[in-house]
Write a structure and sequence with these properties.
single chain; 4 helices; disordered C terminus
């Protein structure tokens, strides 16, 4: 599974503070604490018997310890209660070693448990009894089985995080209709099936939806485009197919991540309104220069598709927000406009143009902004020499010019470019000394030999020879 690099932060869940008794001895009942001469009072709400029983079942099913010296569930770790004892927040975390690994089918399989291990943990159906919950975070607990339908009865829920578990099967349709739910992430599970297509299947409150890295399939619902609060949608790393609804592309939202699916269709002339755009690794086609992006766009990731056309003008005409561009592995052609890059207003940091059919000189890249960190121009048809401007970018970490038709001497990359750690000049026709660390000291002189002298090849001569190395400037 690809890493899917996310751009959105998860909602923070509240944590309860337990009472501390006299001389540091726990006393959840009184909530009074005394340390040295200081006397403070912390009032801990009292959970009802029903909520305590429900929480005990949840902790037990998730294989998390229940504090033996805290009979009041409102004092348990991760439990947050209102003044009247209603459980409003539940944030459970696990730090045992096997649960720190990312879930995989094998590790999530019941037969793949460790000797003496605790697999499988589950989510108890009693979660549906905590009807006052507004925040629920159960990420990275390795919870297996299906997501209990009873959870949909928690209608006050505003934030639900069940990412990084072993949940499988269908995600109950009722989840999308919870009337107050704004934040829903179920990424990195093994959920399957399709998403509901009807508009009435989704609550108008839904604003953040992350179902990435699952086994979901079918068409992307056009109904998602009608959600008035929608701000971030991530369906990456699934098996969605068909066309992307034009209305969804057009929505002016914060982020739209649909990469690593099986989506198809011609996007020529389409408008994309998101500020963060991830459409890579699909089967999309069209003339890229006819696609219109929002003025606020800061990330464009469309690698591994079949887009055609000349050098993308969005790179040259950006209003200054564009920071990450990945057009790699498409069918783009032509030369780079001479005045494309304008450092005075550009915040560009990452530029992937590799595995296309670009040609001509690298001279336009001399004007790349000083903010650049990654430049990959490999596997194209660029010719000529390496321009000096590519050797003086102070923040550049990764530079790949491999598999082109570059000629001339290799310039020094050690003047004002101390951040550079990776350089690939392989499969070109360059010559000269690679900008590696200084050559090793000469070995001690050998005793005189009676053999005829031999002629060694000139050191560091690159004539279509590979060079892929870490840089050491001393």
């Amino acid at each position: 599974m690809a890493e899917t690099n996310t751009f959105a932060e998860r909602a923070e869940a509240a944590s309860a503070v337990g009472g501390v008794g006299v001389n540091g001895v726990d006393s959840a009942a009184t909530g009074i604490s005394s340390r040295s001469t200081a006397l403070t009072a912390t009032i801990v709400p009292q959970a009802s018997a029903a909520n305590t029983a429900a929480l005990a079942a949840i902790f037990t099913a998730a294989q998390l310890p229940i504090p033996a010296n805290k009979p009041n569930a409102c004092a348990w770790p991760g439990v947050s209660c209102a003044a009247n004892g209603a459980v409003e927040g539940l944030s459970l975390m696990e730090t045992t070693h096997y649960r720190l690994l990312p879930p995989t089918p094998r590790l999530c399989n019941r037969t793949a448990r460790e000797p003496g291990g605790k697999f499988p943990a589950t989510l108890a159906a009693s979660i549906g009894q905590l009807t006052d919950l507004t925040t629920l975070s159960l990420s990275n607990l390795w919870l297996a089985g299906s997501v209990p339908l009873s959870l949909s009865r928690v209608t006050k829920l505003q934030s639900l995080d069940i990412a990084g578990n072993c949940f499988a099967g269908l995600l109950p349709v009722a989840f999308f209709r919870m009337p107050n739910l704004f934040f829903l992430t179920a990424s990195r599970n093994f959920l399957s099936g399709g998403l509901p297509q009807r508009r009435t299947a989704y609550a108008v409150s839904l604003g953040f939806l992350d179902l990435s890295v699952n086994w979901l399939f079918g068409p992307i619902p056009a109904a998602l485009a009608t959600l008035p609060s929608l701000y971030m949608l991530s369906l990456s790393n699934n098996r969605f197919s068909g066309r992307i609804p034009p209305a969804l592309l057009k929505r002016e939202i914060g982020a739209l991540f649909l990469d690593w699916n099986r989506l198809s269709g011609d996007l020529s002339g389409q408008q994309i309104g998101a500020s963060l755009v991830g459409l890579g690794r699909n089967r999309l086609t069209g003339n890229f220069n006819t696609i219109r992006f929002s003025k606020s766009v800061s990330v464009i990731q469309v690698s591994e598709n079949m887009f055609s056309g000349t050098f993308p003008q969005i790179v040259c005409s950006s209003s200054g927000n564009l920071g990450v561009v990945d057009f790699s592995r498409n069918r783009l052609t032509g030369t780079v406009p001479a005045n494309c890059f304008k450092p005075a207003k550009s915040v560009l940091e990452v530029l992937y143009l590799n595995h296309n059919n670009f040609s001509g000189s690298l001279q336009p890249f001399s004007s790349l902004p000083k903010s650049m960190k990654v430049v990959n121009l490999g596997f194209n048809k660029f010719t000529g020499t390496i321009p000096p401007g590519l050797t003086t970018l102070p923040h550049l970490v990764d530079l790949d010019l491999g598999a082109n038709s570059l000629t001339g001497l290799i310039p020094s990359f050690c003047q004002g470019q101390q951040a550079l750690t990776f350089l690939n000049l392989a499969s070109n026709a360059l010559s000269g000394r690679p900008p590696l660390s200084p050559p090793p000291p000469a070995p001690p002189p050998s005793p005189p030999s009676t053999s005829p002298p031999t002629v060694s090849p000139a050191p560091y001569l690159l004539q279509s020879a590979p060079l892929k190395a870490s840089i050491g400037c001393f």
